[in-house]
Amino acid sequence: MKLFHENVHVKILSGTQFSRNGTITFSEIVSPPSQNNAKVAVLGASGGIGQPLSLLLKNSPLVGELSLFDIAHTPGVAADLSHIETRAHVTGYMGPDQLDAALKGCDVVVIPAGVPRKPGMTRDDLFNTNATIVATLADAVARNCPEAMICIIANPVNSTIPITSEVMKKYGVYNPNRVFGVTTLDIVRANAFVAELKGLDPARVNVPVIGGHAGKTIIPLISQATPKVEFPADQLSALTARIQDAGTEVVKAKAGAGSATLSMAYAGARFTFSVLDAMNGKNGVVECAYVRSEETECKYFSTPLLLGKHGIEKNLGLGKLSAFEENLVADAIGELKGSIKKGEDFVANMK
Hints:
By secondary structure, the chain is an alpha/beta fold. Helix content is 38%, strand content 17%. The model is unreliable at 1-34 (pLDDT under 50).
């Protein structure tokens, strides 16, 4: 008996989720098979996010080659995944000496590398370690596949995207339309929590989430949700706080054994599939992501984006905000500016 049914089609687009129609499959993403030859790299492939993310990517016909890199255990992860009966060719690379080889010819680079949050840690506590990791990996991307779509999962995303951008600028290869901070988990959580409260099918709920990817910079736009939903003020406030603090909810529940890895892998796969769909010419692919932006006074800001063959085709902006949401944006600006400056300063001071 096959775990993945071959005839079930699964759409992973803005606001839609993996199929719940009988047997769940990740093997059939709607897109013409002849175009699906992308080479995708996962940097940090042996970690808690990297392994399940690599599994989801291996099971998609959107991926022709899967290049896995980490500082340890990658050959084993690659060997394990290579036994799966899907066509993506998997190669494992391990250690700094093999990083360049892992990136040659890649169309999309997904970076979940870095240390996870532990109880009591904020995303900023991760900064020094993860900033160095992301800068090193961005340097390798700039040298080996400068035109690839870069999808950063490594926290703190509010700072690691400015770090990636500044490193790419040093090499003269920065394209703001191709560098994304993956905030999809915030959208996935918002969809799940709203569906739970309203008794809706989560697969049919879509809540845009704007701002950044930490604490109060996470701004769910419940007023723009589809289908339309309404909550009393106290419930709306509690729901917003839960979405903003959902990562800590998981860290506490795992009691020191890790952070959000499985849900983040799902969200990372969803975003990567949307990027690949758009690169293949699919129309109307919309995802929120943290990117270079002129929508607010912050240099970087997450909003819904129309994706195309070359990355961001159009920034769809903030849309019409409620008074409650306007206040959330105002409260987030200062923290976001600080995180952005912290990332830029890190690269400026690099030796």
